[in-house]
Amino acid sequence: MSRSLRIGTRGSALAIQQTQIAVDALHAAWPNLSVDVMHIRTTGDRIQDVPLAKIGDKGLFVKEIEEALLDGRIDWAVHSVKDLPSELPNGLSVGTLAARSDPRDALVARHGLNLATLPENAVIGTSSLRRRAQLLHWRPDLAIVPVRGNVDTRLRKLETDGLDGIVVAAAGLVRMGWEGRISDIIPQEISLPAVGQGALGVEMRSDDEEAHTLFQPLTCTATQAAVTAERTFLARLQGGCQVPIAAWATVDDSRLCLRGMISDMDGLTLLQGERWGLVHAPEQVGTVLAEELLQRGGEAILRDIYGSTRSSGVGKSR
Q1: How many CB atoms lie within 10 A of CB 283?
Q2: Would you call 83 a catalytic residue per the annotation?
Q3: Reported pTM
Q4: What pLDDT digit, counting tens, does each position of 270-315 carry?
């Protein structure tokens, strides 16, 4: 195939590294393919001094890239799947690239500390409400403070802002070659990962048949099924960066296991559940688990977080 493919990505070091993974996979599958990479600055990149939840935009790190896709400036976009809203714009579709990396959260701490040796009232930095809620549920004494920025920026703030540690995605550190900075991998029993964490997604126009053909040899069916279950769970809960929601699906032969979580902001009321299903029906698994958590108290949590402006649609089947 001789087509020249234009790939869009954010300009952070991690985004560029992840895009290179896609470029290398493309060249391995299609040696004659010409690939051009375009760096696109997103709203999330521009606004660094405001917590993500307060900005309130589900597409903080993808909106401008999706606009470039829709108007034809690029043919593919490479994302961390966890950055993608649960609902894509009309005309776009997404698939997962290769096998998923470790989806768990990682603690990077000073003075050789790990989860077991964090002192009382340790100051931990994270920009994620999901991480905040789960860490406080486990250790209410922790002081959780917001830390924004790319991975390298957050690592610098660990040294400059008086923090005892930061919590970030393990996959990002590994992809950057910084796995040596990891003090502890946080078990899912303490911090269930974000939806799609550790997975790379390729977004493209739904009607671009040639772009989809290029992608087919690069996808991982098990990762695709797992991520689909997680994203269906998130969509049913109408979740975004304003709500502590987590999900992690694993595939065992023909079966899929989805674990999900929804919490209030401070981890005082934290609901967890697990649902098994068939790997070829991931949407059903995600929907059933979401409905279960809604009925067990998740609907009330969402109403409290979103308030009356969205309460009329929460918890009702669509």
Answers
A1: 16
A2: yes
A3: 0.89
A4: 999 999 999 999 999 999 999 999 999 999 999 998 873 343 344 4
